[in-house]
Each structure stands twice: as structure tokens, then as C-alpha cells.
């Protein structure tokens, strides 16, 4: 698939990963080269980028956004805290990591990962699902 | 009774003529979740209702179960934009409790990273502002300039966002002379680019969108206890760096001035940030010129140092990019914490949003919200309930439930 | 070329060209922002993907309206553009005139607008009311400009008559008389709003109302909406280049007689018009607010178009 | 005045239209990427033979990455690592190092265990 449209959901991240995702769309890294677009409505999206360890308040939203994305869809956990919950594991407020709640197709570990790694993660996830 | 019913009906009619728009928690204009319930009539905003707590991660309580060095990296992850402010604030409190005095060079380096972080944060916000008003090109240009700072961070500390610069009693990474040269060269470029960004922000269509908008006058700014650029944009001259100097700011006092603007509108707040970038560049130049020699951290390993920190408590203040950041730290004397309390700048600033928003248009919401630079990952912890203005405050079932939830959240 | 054949081959040609135009627009936009940008064929990939996606109709929506409106929008704008192209191809004016084309293009926006507001999403409703005001703002000057053109040339509303009129004058219409120049200026000024790009993308502002009426559309519906937009943008640029600035005539008889060359000249010209009226504004300007946009359109273009009609009625 | 400023933006965007884009063609052109600095904190490497089993690294790690194995050696679950480098700093034998590998992307988290 050559046009993965991305919806980004912050489920309690520290902003680190979020700004790196945005940075991946700026001229230096330019994810739009691969046809990626950052869209604002889950209805338009193919790829769900989740950052953050999934807080209790965001849990229902995560599920709802996931359901709103039309099939076929890909979920990518961006950052250490989305992939494994660390370092916020153990808190009562944290329900994550993401793969405990929705199926995840690729994990990008890093705190935060470099924009290049984010690009690689998105492309890898899309390739695994749409081949 | 008849009278009462009729008032009920008019209230219902009011309800009917307005539209309630949820702004967030998942909204492309916000990179982080906050829920503003906004009532509009046509395009005009008549009421704002805020719900926070979407990214509440329980960091304070987590910190209370970890040792000091683990907590240091944990609180760095309160926020990815001003992580260094958080660690500095925390470390300062620890150093005060343990009477540890970092070397001069360490303090200067801390300040250096601090100011670089301010530049990065302000540029980030300027880009976001441009993005909110639909000026994608300016957003792209601004963020491209910001990449330079991130490169420097990566060179000096090894990571673009979470620098992990501070350690108890000093800093972890030294600045080589080659790096110092690079920082200097980059600063020159950033100064030039920021001037360009400034001129773009005075462009016609931009000006139309951000002038005389979201006005917060001096008295309101004082009353609502806003801090940082939001306060300085309303003419309030507060800056922790001048008022309670920390790190190396005492010696750098003469190298920068506090930027204030009188208008209190979105443009004023934006301009304050632009000029603060220039001030930060001045500070960085001064630091590079006067960087003392010496070691950057104590020789002992962190466990020894942690043991030296007795039971005690301290309050620490720093001027984060968004304003005053306050930490209350209480240690248990065994390398752990009894209590950690964080009061973040956005938390102080958020309350002013309602004042700014009411009476504006829907199109202004993202611009005004962005103008206080609300990054909420540190702030999300309370529920604010605003009832209709002009009526007595009623606690209905809904807000009661929310208050209960708030109590439960705090546990 | 025979009119029937022209009309048959037009729709696929229009679809192809308008998507290519969109791709070029996106590429240039990216390059102006110092990035590489998507490949020119990106809109095709987008459409293929969107058509292969699941259809979702939100429960809050009134399903029938929500589902049919994108189809109507795409069909109507495709029809409008095909009429235009087949008129130019065949050299006759059997099917449709200027007013019909303009009407079909406007109708495609209206259809999308209705479909979006039927989604039950509050942002859709805001988008609807914004689009409504925008259409009132730009359609009126645009129509006045068209009428002024109709008066000024022969008088006729048929596209080919206008083209032939330009050929008989030996001058592009916009250069022929002050009134026509004003009409052309009005039309070009209205283009960004009609194409709904920054600074006039108010009805679908991403950071304010999350695409407005497009918010709930996904998959094939979104694809249809995209087609409708791309096609009507292309139709507008082609209309501007054929009606106001028919350049092939400047290159003499042989060019005029060769349909292939004159058509490709026309297309290149519409590409230029797209660059000037769509790509550049959306790159160098910030979004206006609805009130400001309204004021703008009721000031400059309206005055221009009205003075154009007055001038043309006195024969200038 | 205002019009002039729009003109400036126009001039710059048009100019960049004819310049090379600043994009780093990572993944599309082999070998091109933003240079990695020396101090970059990437994925950990662990030299088991150098490790003396003091387990200090476990006590400093904020992410709970490191656990001890039966033979009193460290074992790392990189999917939990936040790349702070504190374990590298504390290790008395230099058994832990940070490599320059920054792309820790995986389909399966279990592949990220280092023993
Ligand atoms: S992985 Fe790290 S940088 Fe990313 S959101 Fe989590 S804590 Fe922040
Ligand atoms: S206020 Fe929130 S983030 Fe802070 S400690 Fe309490 S739960 Fe954690
Ligand atoms: S927390 Fe805010 S309201 Fe309370 S005293 Fe401080 S500034 Fe004032
Ligand atoms: S105000 Fe809070 S969320 Fe915003 S940058 Fe500072 S610490 Fe981060
Ligand atoms: S509970 Fe009382 S003290 Fe605490 S924030 Fe509310 S008013 Fe202030
Ligand atoms: S209510 Fe008191 S104890 Fe609870 S978080 Fe606020 S200050 Fe702390
Ligand atoms: S600190 Fe070093 S030596 Fe000690 S257990 Fe960890 S890896 Fe081994
Ligand atoms: S780098 Fe930090 S998080 Fe990773 S293993 Fe070492 S101490 Fe733990």
C-alpha cells in the first residue's frame, strides 16, 4: 500500500514521541515521500500511531478510535511507554501497554525514537499487513 | 409554579439555539488530550467547560515508590518538551536537602541546556501557532530551524528529546571545545532564522488572525495567577530567572532582559516568545564565553551520593519555557521519597483560557489555546467545572460525580 | 471530433488529468516547503486505497443521504468537467453551456455539504454553515463575472462561441476589453475559495473543525468526495483558461487547427492557472476567518465583477 | 508593507522550489541519513563475560529493564528501556555499552531480550 494515512493518538505520553512524530513530517524527514499523511479524523486513517502508556481516562477513547478506523488498519506503538508501559508501569492510572488493549502490528522502542525509526516502523507495519 | 415552568422552557430554548462542540480530547490541533466543551451560537463562543486528566499517569505517586535516581529519569518523562526544567528543578531540591554544591562548570552547563531547551520549546510553539492558523509553510520552516537545536542536543547529550543531562551534584555530559564552537555557529544561524520567522509573523494574513485576540489584560493576568510568557504578554514582569536566580543565572543576570508586552493578546504572547529566543541566544553566547573549567560532577557513584541525602524537604523553582515550575520534594533519608509535588506552569495558565475564549469565534479556539502553549502532559490532573456565567454556581449530579472522580484520582 | 465521441472519452480523461493535476499541486507545494513531497501519482494510490477500504456509516447519520451525496457530488462534477472538455474537443456546443457547467460544479459542493451535515457530527454542521456562507460569498461574484463574459462575447453562453469569438478577435478575451479583464480577475480571485484551499479552506479547516463536513466520511465515500474536489478544481482551471485566456490563438492558424496541440496548450495553461490560484496561495498565506473571507469577497471581487458588467454594458 | 512581507514569503518559497530539498532521503536512498553523533544513546549491548554480577545496574534502572538471571548475570528486556544510559554509567566493569543502533523496530517484543 502506498498511501498510509496516519492518525496519531496520545494516550498519556510525555509529548516526546508526539513531537517526534510531527517532526517526521517536517522537511528534514518528510514522511509524505511515502505517501503518509497526518489526518485528523480516525475515519480517514489507515495507521493508528499510539503513544503513551494508556491512562485510565484514555482507555475508552483508544478503543473507540480503534473501532472508528475502517478496515484494513494497522496499529503501531510508538515509544517505549506505548510498547511496554515502562517507566510508568506500576501506576494505578496506567492500563497499558497498548498491546494489552488492542492488537499491535509493530513496536518502535525508543524514548523517544528518532523520526527515522518512526518512519521505518510505519513502513514495516504497513508492509507486514498489506503484502 | 407556572412561572417556574416558563423559565425552564426558556432555558431549554437557549439550549436549543446553541451547539455544543467538544474540542478534544482527540483533536488535530492538540497534540495532547484535553476536553473543552464549548457552547457556541453561530460561530461565537458563549461558554467553555474544561475536562482534564486524560494523560494522568500518577507520576507523583510512582515517584514515591522509587529511589532517587530512578525518579530522576521518571520525572524527566513528565514532559518531552521541557524535560530539563523538570530534572533541574528536582535536582536542585535534592541538592538543597543534601547540601551538595555542584561545580561552577556544571551549573553553567545546566543553564546552557536550559536555554537551548527554551529556544527549542519556543520555536516548537511558533511552529504550532503557524499550523493552527493554517500556515503550513511557516510551520515547516520553523520546525526545520528547530532541528538544528535538536542536533545540538543529540551531539551534546546523546538524545534529541530526553537529554538526561542532570545528575545529583552535577551534569553527565561535558561540552567539548569543538561542540562549543558548533553551538556558537548554530546560534548565529538560529538568530537569523528567528528574525525571519518574526517577519513572517507580522505578515498580513497572519496578523489578521492573531492580533486583538484572546485578550488577557494586566489585572486579569494578576488575578488568574498566570505565569511565564502568558503573564509577560500581559505586561506582568515576572521571571524566576531574575526574581530567584538559580543555577548560573545569578552571574548571567546582566546578559538578558525580561521581555514584556502590554497588549495581552495572542500576538503579544507570540512576540514575547520570539524575543525570548533572542535573549536565550544572548545567554548562550555569554555562557560560552565565560564557561569555567573544572569537573562536571562528583567522583562518587550515585548510590554514595544518594546516601548523603538526609531526610528533609525543599521547595525548588525554575523558569521553564512556559513559566514558573515548582517542585516540593520530601526525602526519606534512605534514598527514596516520601512526597513529591509538582506545580507546572500550564496548570496555572489553563484557567485563564476561559477568560480569553468567551466571545471569540470557533476559528479562534486553536489559536488562543495554542497561545498559552498548553502542553498538558504535566498538567492533566484536575477537573475544572465552569457553570454558566451569571448564574449562581450549582453543583449538579454531573459535576458532583466529577468531583468524586477527582478525589479518587488523587489517591 | 464528433460530439458524441468527445463526450464519451471525456469523463475518464477528466478523471485522469484532474488527479494528475492534484498530484502536481501536492508535489509543488512540498517542494516550495523545501521537502521532496509525494510522487505525482500519489492521488491515484490514495484513491485505490480508499476504494478498497471498509464502508462505515456512523449511527448518528441519516444513512441514505450520507451515502448518496458523495456519489452525486462526484458524478455531478465529473459531468460538468466532461461537458467542458467535450465542448472544447468537439468544437461544437451541442451539450451544455457555461451556466450549466458552473451550476453543476456548485451543485457538487452543495451535495458534499449536505452529506456531511447529515453525518450528525457537530463539526459537520459547523462545516455546513461555513461552506454555506463561503458559497454565498464567492459564487455571486463568480456568476456575475460569467454573465459579464456572456454579454461581452457575441453575446453567448456557449463555450465554443466564446472560444470562436476570441479567435475572431485574435486576442484572448481577458486582453480584449477592460470589462473582460475585470471579469477574468474576478474569476481568478474566486478560484482559491471555490477550490477551498488556504486561505479560504475555512469550511474544512483541519485544525479548527477537522475537515468539517468530510469528518465522518471514510473509505470509498471519502474517495468520491476527493474525486469531486479534484475534478471541480480542474474544471475551474480549464474553464478559466478556455474562456478568458485561450492562448493557442496567439500562436497562429496551424496551432489552432491542430486539436492535440491546442488542447495540450490549454492544459498547460490551466496548470499554470492552478499554480497561481491554488498552489501559491495555499503555500504562502494563512487561513482567514469566515468573517474576514466574507468581507474580502464582498469587497474586491464583487466590486470588480459589478464594474465589469457595467463596463461591458456600455461596450467597453 | 504587509504586501511586501507576503512577497517575501512568496520569494522564498519560489526559490526553494528550484533548490534542492532539505529532506534526508532516508530509506529511499541507501546510506543517506542524519549523521549519528558519537554520544548517541542507542540500543544496549551487553558483554556477559565482563559482568561480575554486582547487580548495581538493576538498582538504578528506572524502567525495570534489567533482571538477574540464575547465574547472577544481567538480562535485558529492551522493549522497556528508556535509553537513559544510567546502567552504563554505574557498571563498574563497563559490561554494558550503548551502541549506535537507533532503529529498535520490531514485530515481536520477545525478540528484544538480551541475555
Ligand atoms: S516513550 Fe518516552 S518519549 Fe515517548 S512518550 Fe513515552 S516517555 Fe515520552
Ligand atoms: S498529579 Fe497526576 S501526574 Fe502528578 S503525581 Fe498525581 S497522579 Fe501523578
Ligand atoms: S497555585 Fe496558582 S492560584 Fe495558587 S497561589 Fe500559586 S499561583 Fe496562585
Ligand atoms: S508545561 Fe508541562 S507539559 Fe508543557 S513543556 Fe512544560 S513540563 Fe512539559
Ligand atoms: S480543595 Fe481547597 S485547597 Fe484544594 S485546590 Fe480546592 S479550594 Fe484549593
Ligand atoms: S488535594 Fe492536596 S494532597 Fe491532593 S494532590 Fe492536591 S495538594 Fe496534593
Ligand atoms: S552493573 Fe555491570 S557488572 Fe554489575 S551486574 Fe550490571 S552489568 Fe554486571
Ligand atoms: S539505559 Fe536506562 S532504562 Fe535502559 S537499561 Fe539502562 S538504566 Fe535501564
Which sequence of SSEs, written as H and E, runs from N to C of chain A? EHEEHEHEH
The whole-number mean of residue pLDDT values of chain C reads 78
Determine Rg of chain C (CA atoms, Å).
19 Å
State the shape of chain A: globular
Weakly predicted, low-confidence segments of chain C? none
Rg of chain A, nearest Å: 13 Å
Mean pLDDT of chain A: 83
- Second-tier CATH architecture of chain A: 3-Layer(aba) Sandwich
- Give the proportion of residues in helices of chain A: 25-40%
Poorly predicted regions of chain A are none
* Share of residues in strands of chain A: 15-25%
Report the span from N to C terminus of chain A. Answer: 8 Å
Determine the CATH topology of chain A: Rossmann fold
Describe the 3D structure.
The complex is a heterotetramer of chains A (131), B (411), C (316) and D (115). Chain A is α/β, with parallel strands linked by helices and 131 residues long. Chain A contains four helices and five strands. Chain A has a five-stranded parallel sheet, with helices on both faces. Chain A starts with a strand and ends with a helix. Chain B is built from 18 helices and nine strands. Chain B has helices at residues 2-17, 59-63, 68-76, 83-97, 104-132, 136-157, 177-201, 204-210, 218-223, 228-232, 240-243, 249-252, 266-290, 302-308, 345-350, 352-357, 365-371, 397-410; strands spanning 19-23, 35-41, 44-51, 166-167, 170-171, 311-320, 323-332, 337-343, 383-384. The radius of gyration of chain B is 23 Å and the shape is globular. Chain C has one domain. In chain C, helix 1 crosses helix 10 and helix 8 (178-194) runs antiparallel to helix 10 (219-243). Chain D has a single domain, classed as Alpha-Beta Plaits (2-Layer Sandwich), CATH 3.30.70. Chain D is an alpha+beta fold. Chain D has three helices and six strands; from the N terminus they run αβαββαβββ. Chains in contact: A-B, A-C, A-D, B-C, B-D, C-D. The A-B interface holds A 8-20, 22-23, 26-28, 38-42, 52-53, 55-58, 61, 65, 81, 87-88, 90-94, 111-112, 114 and B 25-28, 31-33, 53-59, 61-62, 65, 70, 73-74, 77-81, 83, 124, 139-141, 143-144, 146-147, 150, 159-162, 375, 377, 409, 411. One iron/sulfur cluster binds at residues 78-79, 81-82, 86, 320, 322, 344-346, 375, 377-379 of chain B.
Amino acid at each position: 500500500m502506498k498511501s498510509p494515512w496516519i492518525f496519531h493518538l496520545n494516550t498519556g505520553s510525555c509529548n516526546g514521541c508526539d513531537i517526534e512524530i510531527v517532526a517526521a513530517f517536517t522537511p528534514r524527514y518528510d514522511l509524505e515521500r511515502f505517501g503518509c499523511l497526518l489526518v485528523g479524523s480516525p475515519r480517514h486513517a489507515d495507521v493508528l500511531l499510539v503513544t503513551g502508556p494508556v491512562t485510565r481516562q484514555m482507555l475508552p477513547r483508544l478503543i473507540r478510535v480503534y473501532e472508528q478506523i475502517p478496515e484494513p488498519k494497522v496499529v503501531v506503538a510508538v515509544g517505549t511507554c506505548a510498547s511496554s508501559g515502562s517507566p510508568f508501569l506500576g501506576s494505578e492510572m496506567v492500563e497499558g501497554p497498548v498491546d494489552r488493549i488492542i492488537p499491535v502490528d509493530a513496536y518502535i522502542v525508543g524514548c523517544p525514537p528518532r523520526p527515522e525509526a518512526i518512519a521505518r516502523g510505519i513502513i514495516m507495519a504497513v508492509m507486514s499487513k498489506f503484502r | 409554579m407556572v412561572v417556574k415552568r416558563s423559565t425552564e422552557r426558556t432555558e431549554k430554548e437557549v439550549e436549543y439555539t446553541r451547539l455544543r462542540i467538544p474540542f478534544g480530547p482527540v483533536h488535530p490541533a492538540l497534540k495532547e488530550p484535553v476536553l473543552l466543551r464549548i457552547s457556541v451560537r453561530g460561530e461565537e463562543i458563549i461558554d467553555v467547560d474544561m475536562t482534564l486528566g486524560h494523560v494522568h499517569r500518577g507520576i507523583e505517586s510512582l515517584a514515591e515508590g522509587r529511589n532517587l535516581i530512578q525518579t530522576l529519569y521518571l520525572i524527566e518523562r513528565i514532559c518531552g518538551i521541557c524535560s530539563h526544567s523538570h530534572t533541574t528543578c528536582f535536582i536542585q531540591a535534592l541538592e538543597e536537602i543534601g547540601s551538595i554544591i555542584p561545580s561552577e562548570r556544571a551549573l553553567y552547563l545546566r543553564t546552557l541546556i536550559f536555554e537551548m531547551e527554551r529556544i527549542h520549546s519556543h520555536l516548537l510553539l511558533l511552529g504550532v501557532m503557524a499550523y493552527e492558523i493554517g500556515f503550513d509553510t511557516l510551520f515547516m520552516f520553523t520546525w526545520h530551524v528547530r532541528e538544528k537545536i535538536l542536533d545540538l542536543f543529540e551531539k551534546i547529550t546523546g538524545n534529541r528529546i530526553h537529554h538526561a543531562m542532570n545528575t545529583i551534584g552535577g551534569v553527565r555530559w561535558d561540552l567539548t571545545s569543538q561542540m562549543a564552537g558548533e553551538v556558537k555557529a548554530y546560534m548565529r544561524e538560529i538568530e537569523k532564522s528567528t528574525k525571519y520567522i518574526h517577519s513572517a509573523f507580522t505578515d498580513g494574513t497572519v496578523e489578521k488572525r492573531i492580533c486583538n485576540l484572546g485578550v488577557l489584560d494586566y489585572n486579569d493576568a494578576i488575578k488568574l495567577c498566570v505565569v511565564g510568557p502568558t503573564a509577560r504578554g500581559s505586561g506582568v514582569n515576572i521571571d524566576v530567572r531574575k526574581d530567584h536566580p538559580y543555577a548560573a543565572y545569578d552571574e548571567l543576570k546582566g546578559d538578558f532582559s525580561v521581555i514584556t508586552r502590554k497588549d495581552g493578546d495572542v500576538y503579544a504572547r507570540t512576540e514575547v516568545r520570539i524575543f525570548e529566543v533572542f535573549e536565550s541566544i544572548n545567554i548562550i553566547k555569554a555562557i560560552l564565553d565565560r564557561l569555567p573549567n573544572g569537573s562536571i560532577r562528583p567522583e562518587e557513584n550515585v548510590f554514595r551520593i544518594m546516601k548523603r541525602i538526609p531526610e528533609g524537604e525543599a521547595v525548588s523553582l525554575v523558569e521553564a519555557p512556559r513559566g514558573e515550575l515548582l517542585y516540593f520534594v520530601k526525602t526519606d533519608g534512605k534514598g527514596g521519597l516520601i512526597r513529591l509535588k509538582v506545580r507546572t506552569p500550564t496548570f496555572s495558565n489553563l484557567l485563564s483560557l476561559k477568560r480569553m475564549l468567551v466571545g471569540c469565534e470557533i476559528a479562534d479556539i486553536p489559536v488562543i489555546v495554542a497561545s498559552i502553549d498548553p502542553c498538558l502532559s504535566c498538567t492533566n490532573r484536575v477537573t475544572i467545572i465552569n457553570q454558566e456565567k451569571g448564574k449562581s454556581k450549582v453543583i449538579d449530579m454531573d459535576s458532583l460525580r466529577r468531583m468524586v472522580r477527582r478525589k479518587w484520582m488523587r489517591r | 471530433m464528433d460530439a458524441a465521441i468527445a463526450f464519451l472519452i471525456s469523463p475518464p480523461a477528466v478523471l485522469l488529468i484532474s488527479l494528475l493535476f492534484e498530484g502536481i499541486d501536492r508535489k509543488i507545494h512540498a517542494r516550495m516547503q523545501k521537502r521532496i513531497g509525494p510522487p505525482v501519482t500519489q492521488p491515484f494510490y490514495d484513491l485505490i486505497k480508499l476504494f478498497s477500504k471498509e464502508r462505515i456509516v456512523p449511527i448518528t447519520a441519516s444513512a441514505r443521504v450520507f451515502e448518496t451525496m458523495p456519489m452525486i457530488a462526484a458524478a455531478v462534477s465529473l459531468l460538468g468537467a466532461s461537458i467542458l472538455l467535450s465542448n472544447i474537443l468537439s468544437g461544437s456546443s451541442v451539450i451544455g453551456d457555461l451556466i450549466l457547467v458552473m451550476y453543476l460544479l456548485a451543485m457538487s459542493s452543495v451535495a458534499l455539504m449536505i452529506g456531511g451535515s447529515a453525518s450528525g457530527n457537530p463539526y459537520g454542521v459547523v462545516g455546513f454553515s461555513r461552506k454555506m456562507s463561503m458559497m454565498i460569498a464567492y459564487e455571486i461574484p463568480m456568476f456575475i463575472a460569467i454573465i459579464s463574459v456572456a454579454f461581452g462575447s457575441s453575446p453567448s453562453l456557449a463555450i465554443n462561441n466564446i472560444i470562436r469569438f476570441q479567435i475572431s478577435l485574435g486576442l484572448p478575451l481577458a486582453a480584449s476589453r477592460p470589462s473582460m479583464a475585470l471579469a477574468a480577475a474576478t474569476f481568478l480571485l474566486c478560484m482559491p475559495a471555490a477550490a477551498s484551499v488556504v486561505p479560504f479552506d475555512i469550511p474544512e479547516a483541519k485544525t479548527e473543525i477537522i475537515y468539517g463536513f468530510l469528518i465522518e466520511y471514510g473509505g470509498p465515500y471519502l474517495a468520491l468526495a476527493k474525486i469531486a474536489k479534484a475534478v471541480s478544481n480542474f474544471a475551474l482551471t480549464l474553464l478559466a483558461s478556455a474562456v478568458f485566456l485561450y492562448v493557442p490563438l496567439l500562436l497562429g492558424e496551424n496551432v489552432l487547427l491542430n486539436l492535440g496541440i491546442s488542447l495540450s496548450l490549454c492544459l498547460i495553461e490551466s496548470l499554470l492557472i492552478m499554480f497561481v490560484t491554488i498552489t501559491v496561495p495555499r503555500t504562502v498565506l494563512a487561513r482567514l476567518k469566515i468573517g474576514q473571507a466574507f468581507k474580502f469577497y464582498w469587497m474586491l471581487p464583487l466590486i470588480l465583477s459589478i464594474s465589469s458588467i457595467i463596463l461591458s454594458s456600455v461596450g467597453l | 508593507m504587509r504586501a511586501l512581507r507576503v512577497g517575501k514569503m512568496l520569494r522564498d518559497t519560489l526559490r526553494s522550489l528550484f533548490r534542492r530539498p532539505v529532506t534526508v532521503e532516508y530509506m529511499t536512498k541507501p546510506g543517506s541519513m542524519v549523521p549519528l553523533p558519537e554520544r548517541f544513546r542507542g540500543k544496549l549491548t551487553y558483554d556477559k563475560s565482563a559482568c561480575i554480577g554486582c547487580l548495581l545496574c538493576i538498582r538504578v534502572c528506572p524502567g525495570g529493564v534489567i533482571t538477574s538471571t540464575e547465574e547472577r548475570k544481567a538480562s535485558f528486556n529492551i522493549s522497556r528501556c528508556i535509553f537513559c544510559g544510567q546502567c552504563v554509567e554505574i557498571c563498574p566493569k563497563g559490561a554494558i555499552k550503548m551502541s549506535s543502533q537507533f532503529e529498535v523496530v520490531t514485530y515481536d517484543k520477545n525478540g528484544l531480550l538480551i541475555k
